Amino acid sequence: MMHLNLLRLGACRVPSRLMSTKSTSVEINDKTGVAILSMCRPPVNSQNVQFLRDLKSSIYEIENNKSRGLILTSANSNVFSAGLDILEMYNADKEQLGTLWTELQNVWIALYGSGLPTAAAINGHAPAGGCLLATACEYRAMLPNCVIGLNETQLGIIAPKWLMSGYQNILPQRLAERALTQGRLFTTEEALKAGLIDEIVNSKEEALEKCLNFIGTFAKVNPLARSLTKLQFRAANIKEFEKIRQKDVEDFVSLASRPEVQKVMGDYLENLKKKSKK
Ligand SMILES: CCCCC/C=C\C/C=C\CC/C=C/CC(=O)SCCNC(=O)CCNC(=O)[C@H](O)C(C)(C)COP(=O)(O)OP(=O)(O)OC[C@H]1O[C@@H](n2cnc3c(N)ncnc32)[C@H](O)[C@@H]1OP(=O)(O)O
User: How much is the pLDDT for 100?
Assistant: First the structure.
């Protein structure tokens, strides 16, 4: 079909506009109008306050520029995003913890509540907050031999309801409950079988192409009708989130600042560091 051909990456040698922040870059293809938002905070796109602020402003910029769609991906070759930056939670004071959590909420609502067609080209591991971003999108293509999932219970912590919303939108209730209580990280292959991702792809280029094709399926649909229909599906979760968002920050701060939770974080960090030195 014509519009799908136009969207093929290889065929799109047309000018692109570039916008960037310290830890994100955005390329908007002038022909397709689709924006590719790349996360670039080496080594693992862990989510600290600055990164989350950059991500939020890029998402709103794409939305305000009237792009035709948004594709989220990573500039890192094997990690999509490692989730919240544990270094920024460990030994942090209450104000810092509150700011971090507020910014995570802000990014989630910007992406989950976006009226644009959104897709994730998951070119690496996507645990915890990485999975949160991917599941806030409407479509996911993922590289093999990676993991994705909400592993909070494995870390002895509870993901609040809004953080599970994307998961619950995608997975059947029974499967979502089991995966969340197990804190399961799915391999790419398991994620496809469960329906957590839509496609397995062999390269980042193929992931981007699949995402473009997905966004292309809306080419002949009225954008406002599309957007309002999408948001009707998400309205209940968004409304529930808005009601509890301040209390949710307080709950997070109170939990994350407890000495025993700080100890878990410290041990977890140490293990991560030991593993990376091997
Ligand atoms: C962990 C306890 C949290 C306790 C919180 C308490 C209360 C909160 C209440 C509710 C919160 C619920 C929500 C939580 C959302 C989250 O996102 S928590 C973060 C969870 N993330 C993870 O568990 C992922 C950990 N990382 C990995 O599994 C691997 O790094 C990877 C992503 C699979 C990549 O592996 P790879 O081999 O490529 O890289 P390395 O492991 O060698 O890592 C390189 C480098 O990066 C550092 N690093 C990795 N992840 C993080 C991170 N999330 N934050 C900070 N730093 C991270 C790693 O230590 C290495 O550093 P280096 O040794 O200095 O090179």
Answer: 98
The predicted-structure confidence for 95-106, as pLDDT tens digits, reads as follows: 999 999 999 999
183 Rama class: left (phi>0) / alpha (psi -120 to 50) / beta: left
| Cα-Cα end-to-end distance for the chain | 50
Q: What kind and span of H or E run contains 27?
A: strand 24-29
DSSP conformation class of 77: S
75 lines ligand 1 (CB under 6 A): no
Which residues of the chain fall short of a pLDDT of 70? 1-17
Number of residues that make up the chain: 278
Q: What's residue 262's pLDDT? A: 93
Q: Is 216 in the pocket of ligand 1 (CB under 6 A)?
A: no
Residue 254: C-alpha distances to residues 84, 161, 168, 261, 266 (Å): 17, 17, 26, 10, 17
Closest ligand 1 atom to residue 265 Cα is 2
Question: Domain range holding 63?
Answer: 2-277
Cα distances (angstroms) measured from residue 105 to each of 76, 132, 267: 23, 11, 26
Q: Is the CB of 275 under 6 A from ligand 1?
A: yes
Total domain count for the chain?
1
Q: Residue 30 is part of a domain; what is its CATH number?
A: 3.90.226.10
- Using the structure block, give the residue that is written with the tokens 């994730």: 120
Q: What is the pLDDT of residue 1?
A: 34
- Residue 125 is predicted with a pLDDT of 98
